[in-house]
DNA sequence: CACTCCCGCCAATTA
DNA sequence: TAATTGGCGGGAGTG
């Protein structure tokens, strides 16, 4: 990532390798020449010999293979050169690290060194992410190929994918124009819209969604068959629109790339397994899909995925399903697209700092619907046929040998059929498994379930989270665990913290889960608004708190597992089943506590009313957390660019908080940044939950945030201090209300959540809350809208890390959080707060600060996001979504309680 | 052995 | 017709 940044930042372009340059120059210069210049020439010249080159040569001599092709040699050289000379950068660096390659080995470039992903990074390093509008950067394929030392064919692979995202455009033969990421958000937005149309519809209505999912699931399962049906669609090839043709182009890597991206954008979980993607993308649809075809598709997807990974839009993860692990990719790019991506850089106020963005996010959904065609040529997606098409594909694939895929899908199906069932299943699993994985997976599932509805795509289980974490990237850090537990939204962050096993996990875990909770964590909100607490990290810290809570919290790491499990297990079923978490409601206290413990993470408190405020969303308290996340997301969106976020994340894997911080937002309040780390570090320590407290006044009219930094406390202090343990990282208070509200955070709450919380947490918290402000419901948590589902999404961790993009939609976040919350405590259920609303509505002005929140959100989101996302999408699909989802949740919540 | 995915043949397109 | 694009899938590298 660093590298990327660098490259971006840096000089615009090229430059790069000296040696290369030389050679290039020739080529390069041609900028205009449309024609290709000469590959030949280039090749021949291998001039730039570097020391390494010599080695290589020797090596090559040694190996016949090498010898054979001069080309290769040449290629290599360049590469090497580039590596060495150039930027050794990170890219290589990274690579190197990974492989550890090294020097020696250079000789024979390992396969990794020749990977498309690496190649793509090198390619991207040559151009500025955000080139000045004025200058047009032309790309000569030949030049690039020679510089990078690869065959042109490979460059096509990269360029085609980049072209699908409009990062480049073809101007002439051998000539491409580099646009950079300026339009990336727009492109993604369009894709999202298109994706919703095609795939999304499914989601649109819940029912539909379910159905769709259902279908998907079936399809997947079946695999097979025929495909029969298929009526659907074809959208697959939009372009084709013309369809006609189709010829080759239809199958084009470009289209596949766009569709692949769409799947991510539509997916609630933001995770797409290769097999599912392959099935869906098999345009043909026809069933046929032979196995071979499937394999081919997968190969292509790997190619695309490598490029997207280099762009920082997705990352490799593994989804654990019943069957086992499946390779999958998680979207880490921006989820929402404000109008412009640029935001990152600077939005002008106009854009609305936060609100706007956030809002934008929210809005997006709506918008999405509208747009479509943007894609232009390549993009042409068929809008039509969305659902069906998807299904077909799925079905079509049928053959699918890979049942696994199906399996995952299956889950989804189930979900579709009934989330509840799924939930139940999950729970069961969870319980059974209790084990970590299980938990994770389940969680994921749950989330998925929840989300399921939304998209089939989302199918992927979260479980992978851990895997996610795995990612080399920073993300890995936290997320991992947490992710799993989406439910815990908070946890996520926490979990990450937790992850530190070292931490007192024990303490957290079991101990006193409750303890902490009780004490601290509270938030009082005045009316309306919601608060979010994120705590993540701290859990560890919380340990203190924890004792009660601590257990949980700390445990996080383990916790995460634990948590989920706990939560999941216990509640999971409950939760899972309905997003609403009614279950929780049922047993409020105890369960909650328990759950909470498990959770750990964050809790949100929402005022009772909030929902109202929130409006539709509000409904379910569950949403609270989710809501928060959402907000966060929004913020994220606003400010950060995905990439950035990513970076940040990477950098700090920390928790959400950290992430948040990075984000701009952090309002002043955020002081904590450091804290965050600390918190983590401290895990044990009491903590500091990072909080941000945003004063209402501050501008965020709508929100108040507390961030981990303990500091927040001030405001919050009440609780916070007490809460010490709380991990709550953040509290967000949306709505205007906030202003009015005092927020109280209890640090603990996270912890509380998790563990035992209930009592402690929930109880305490809830109580507090309830008492304090919320009385109404108890519920501590509020979820915003969607939250509903949220429940669980495990993903969280990831998100956090990646805050940037992760952003899922609010929904996801919310959901998660919500879910988490809900899960945790019944309390949550209580009100659904809608974060979103808060923000939006009240918000008057969001300030930049809000942005931060976003980060926070991200955190939260992550966890929850998975599940939610779907919901969101759905929602999005229709504006209704808000309402609907919200409503649902509300209903659920209400019901559930019932 | 499964997962990745490099490599490059060769067909479709384009100039 | 030659060159450019790019689908495709064998099979090798990696773990």
TrEMBL record:
Residues forming the E2F/DP family winged-helix DNA-binding domain are 111-180, 248-333
Question: Which biological process, per GO, is one annotated for this protein?
Answer: positive regulation of nucleobase-containing compound metabolic process
Q: What is the protein named? A: Transcription factor E2F7
Q: Entry's InterPro entries?
A: E2F (IPR015633), E2F_WHTH_DNA-bd_dom (IPR003316), WH-like_DNA-bd_sf (IPR036388), WH_DNA-bd_sf (IPR036390)
User: Which PANTHER family is this protein grouped with?
Assistant: TRANSCRIPTION FACTOR E2F, TRANSCRIPTION FACTOR E2F7
SUPFAM superfamilies, per the entry = Winged helix' DNA-binding domain
* Entry-linked Gene3D superfamilies: Winged helix-like DNA-binding domain superfamily/Winged helix DNA-binding domain (1.10.10.10)
Ranked from the top, the taxonomy reads:
Eukaryota, Metazoa, Chordata, Craniata, Vertebrata
């Amino acid at each position: 990532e660093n590298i990327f940044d660098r490259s971006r930042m840096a000089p615009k372009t090229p430059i790069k390798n000296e040696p290369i340059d030389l050679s290039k120059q020739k080529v390069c210069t041609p900028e205009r020449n449309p024609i290709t210049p000469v590959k030949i020439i280039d090749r021949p010249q291998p001039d730039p010999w570097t020391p390494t080159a010599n080695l290589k040569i020797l090596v090559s001599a040694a190996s016949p293979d090498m010898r054979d092709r001069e080309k290769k040699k040449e290629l290599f050289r360049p590469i090497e050169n580039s590596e060495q000379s150039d930027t050794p950068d990170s890219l290589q660096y990274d690579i190197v690290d990974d492989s550890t390659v090294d020097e020696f080995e250079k000789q024979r470039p390992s396969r990794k060194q020749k990977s498309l992903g690496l190649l793509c990074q090198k390619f991207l390093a040559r151009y500025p992410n955000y080139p000045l509008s004025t200058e047009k950067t032309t790309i000569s394929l030949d030049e690039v190929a020679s510089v990078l030392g690869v065959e042109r064919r490979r460059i096509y692979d990269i360029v085609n994918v980049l072209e699908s995202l409009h990062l480049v455009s073809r101007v002439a033969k051998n000539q491409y124009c580099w646009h950079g990421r300026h339009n990336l958000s727009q492109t993604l937005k369009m894709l999202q819209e298109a994706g919703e149309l095609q795939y999304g519809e499914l989601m649109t209505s819940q029912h539909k969604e379910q159905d769709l999912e259902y279908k998907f699931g079936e399809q997947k399962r079946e695999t097979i068959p025929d495909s029969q049906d298929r009526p659907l669609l074809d959208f697959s090839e939009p372009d084709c629109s013309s369809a006609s043709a189709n010829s080759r182009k239809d199958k084009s890597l470009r289209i596949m790339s766009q569709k692949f991206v769409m799947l991510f954008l539509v997916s609630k979980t933001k995770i797409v397994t290769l097999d599912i993607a392959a099935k869906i993308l098999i345009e043909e649809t026809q069933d046929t899909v032979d196995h071979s075809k499937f394999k081919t598709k997968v190969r292509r997807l790997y190619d695309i995925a490598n490029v997207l990974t280099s762009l920082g839009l997705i990352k490799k993860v593994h989804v654990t399903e019943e069957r086992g692990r499946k390779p999958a990719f998680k979207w880490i790019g921006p989820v929402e697209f404000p109008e412009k991506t640029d935001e990152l850089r600077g939005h002008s106020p106009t854009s609305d700092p936060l609100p706007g963005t956030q809002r934008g996010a929210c809005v997006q959904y709506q918008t999405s619907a509208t747009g479509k065609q943007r894609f232009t040529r390549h993009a042409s997606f068929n809008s039509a046929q969305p659902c069906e098409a998807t299904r077909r594909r799925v079905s079509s694939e049928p053959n699918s040998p890979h049942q696994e895929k199906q399996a995952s899908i299956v889950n989804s199906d189930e979900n579709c059929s009934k989330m509840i069932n799924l939930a139940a299943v999950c729970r069961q699993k969870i319980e059974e498994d209790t084990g970590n994985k299980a938990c994770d997976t389940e969680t994921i599932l749950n989330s998925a379930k929840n989300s399921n509805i939304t998209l089939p795509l989302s199918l992927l289980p979260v479980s992978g989270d851990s895997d996610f974490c795995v990612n080399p990237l920073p993300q890995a850090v936290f997320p991992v665990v947490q992710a799993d537990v989406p439910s815990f939204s908070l946890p996520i962050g926490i979990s990450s913290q937790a992850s530190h096993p070292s931490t007192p996990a024990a303490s957290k875990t079991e101990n006193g889960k409750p303890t902490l909770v009780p004490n601290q964590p509270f938030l009082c909100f005045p009316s309306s608004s919601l608060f979010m607490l994120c705590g993540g990290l701290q859990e560890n810290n919380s340990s203190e708190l924890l004792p009660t809570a601590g257990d949980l919290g700390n445990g996080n790491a383990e916790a995460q597992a634990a948590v989920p499990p706990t939560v999941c297990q216990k509640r999971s079923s409950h939760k899972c089943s309905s997003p609403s978490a009614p279950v929780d409601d049922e047993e409020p206290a105890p369960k909650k506590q328990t759950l909470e413990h498990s959770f750990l993470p964050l809790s949100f408190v929402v005022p009772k009313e909030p929902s109202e405020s929130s409006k539709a969303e509000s409904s379910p308290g569950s949403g609270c957390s989710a809501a928060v996340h959402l907000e966060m997301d929004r913020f994220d969106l606003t400010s950060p660019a995905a990439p950035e976020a990513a970076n940040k994340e990477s950098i700090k894997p920390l928790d959400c908080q950290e992430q948040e911080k990075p984000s701009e937002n952090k309002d002043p309040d955020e002081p904590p940044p450091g804290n965050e780390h600390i918190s983590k570090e401290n895990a044990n320590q009491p903590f500091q939950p990072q909080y941000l407290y945003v004063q209402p006044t501050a501008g965020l009219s709508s929100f108040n945030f507390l961030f981990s930094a303990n500091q927040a406390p001030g405001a919050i202090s009440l609780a916070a201090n007490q809460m010490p343990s709380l991990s709550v990282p953040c509290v967000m208070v949306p709505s205007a209300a906030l202003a009015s509200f005092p927020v109280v955070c209890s640090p603990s709450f996270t912890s509380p959540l998790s563990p035992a919380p209930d009592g402690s947490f929930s109880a305490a918290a809830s109580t507090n809350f309830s008492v304090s402000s919320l009385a109404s419901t108890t519920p501590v948590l509020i979820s915003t809208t969607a939250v509903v589902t949220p429940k669980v999404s495990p993903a969280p961790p990831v998100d956090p890390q990646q805050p940037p993009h992760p952003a899922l939609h609010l929904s996801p976040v919310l959901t998660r959080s919500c879910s988490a919350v809900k899960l945790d405590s019944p309390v949550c259920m209580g009100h659904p707060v809608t974060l979103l609303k808060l923000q939006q509505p009240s918000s008057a002005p969001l300030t930049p600060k809000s942005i931060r929140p976003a980060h926070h959100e991200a955190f939260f989101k992550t966890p929850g996001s998975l599940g939610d996302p779907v919901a969101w999408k759905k929602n999005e699909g229709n504006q209704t979504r808000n309402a609907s989802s919200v409503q649902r949740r509300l209903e659920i919540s209400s019901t559930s309680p019932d």
